[in-house]
């Protein structure tokens, strides 16, 4: 029996989770009770037409992620939820949401096809519902079950104890980062976390506590893209989050790579953000690989090959003057 757990190896090696959030412009969440197979869309409850549609989505939208979700508390008889989160344009604070229900999962494909043919973006009216996904996909990687299932239960208890009626907790199929299990995706912001416990999760839920504690659990923000992991813009965003504390979670953000060398060991990143009162700020920083700090780990529980996991750090973080009209 394989007793290796990739999340435990990563934790013991003190691997930093920042920069390992998968960039994604479109999330499609389909309510479907487990068990799920390793490839969730090969599960018995998934119709052939839905599986084909998911394959078409990935071909048409490379920056998409289709996930199965479930909650034993939220489920209703003869009802299947479909949640679609699409990244907002320009400076943004996350994703716009569309939610609908159908009678059964076999009806999802047609509804989803109609949305993809006529996508619309809407601003959700306050108060916003937060949908938080906890990966429990143990058939994909056993760490997702070992750490994800107990934390899913703990997360529900934490939300209940805090009396947060606008927060829904879902177990989810895999969205990456099993070596940081238990992992979470927080919508509509689209921020990603790992190695969560009750204390850090409470801070995330309430936007309160010592912001420095997020350094050990924050994986990054899916709206900030890059071609290589760890994603440089996500490292810079974390530095600014630590500087501006919980107010940062109210800001709208965009980023770009100003300069990058051939092997991406050096990256000059610019990040611009807007506060709720309309103030604009712009920062630039270098994100540089420290080759002496690279880790060499087996990246998943069923893996056999050691992977190089590069270590990057942020330096020369500087606020720039903003262009004036």
UniProtKB/TrEMBL annotation:
InterPro entries for this protein: Aim32/Apd1-like (IPR009737), Aim32/Apd1-like_bac (IPR010350), Thioredoxin-like_sf (IPR036249)
Any Pfam family from its record, for instance, is Suc_Fer-like
Protein name (Swiss-Prot/TrEMBL):
Sucrase ferredoxin
């Amino acid at each position: 029996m394989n007793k290796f757990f990739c999340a435990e190896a990563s934790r013991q090696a003190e691997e930093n989770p920042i920069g390992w959030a998968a960039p994604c412009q479109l999330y499609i969440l389909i309510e479907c009770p487990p068990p799920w197979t390793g490839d969730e869309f090969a599960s018995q409850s998934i119709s052939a037409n839905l599986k084909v549609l998911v394959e078409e989505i990935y071909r048409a939208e490379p920056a998409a992620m289709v996930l199965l979700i479930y909650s034993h508390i939220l489920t209703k008889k003869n009802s299947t939820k479909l949640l679609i989160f699409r990244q907002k344009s320009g400076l943004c604070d996350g994703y716009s949401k569309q939610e609908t229900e159908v009678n059964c999962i076999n009806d999802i494909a047609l509804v989803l096809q109609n949305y993809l043919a006529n996508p619309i973006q809407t601003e959700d009216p306050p108060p916003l519902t937060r949908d938080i996904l906890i990966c429990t996909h143990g058939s994909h990687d056993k760490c997702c079950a070992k750490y994800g299932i107990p934390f899913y239960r703990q997360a529900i208890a934490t939300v209940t104890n805090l009396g947060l009626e606008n927060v829904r907790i879902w177990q989810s199929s895999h969205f990456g980062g099993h070596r940081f299990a238990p992992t979470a995706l927080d919508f509509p912001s689209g921020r990603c976390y790992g190695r969560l416990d009750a204390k850090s999760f409470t801070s995330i839920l309430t936007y309160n506590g010592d912001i420095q504690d997020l350094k050990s659990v924050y994986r990054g923000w899916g709206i900030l893209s890059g071609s290589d992991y760890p994603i440089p813009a996500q490292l810079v965003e974390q530095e600014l989050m630590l500087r501006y504390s919980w107010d940062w979670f109210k800001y709208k953000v965009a980023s770009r790579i100003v300069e990058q060398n051939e092997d991406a060991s050096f990256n000059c990143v610019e990040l611009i953000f807007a506060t709720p009162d309309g103030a604009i700020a712009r920062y630039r920083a270098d994100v540089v690989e420290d080759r002496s700090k690279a880790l060499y780990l087996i990246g998943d529980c069923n893996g056999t090959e050691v992977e190089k996991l590069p270590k990057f750090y942020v330096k020369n973080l500087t606020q720039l003057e903003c262009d004036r009209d």
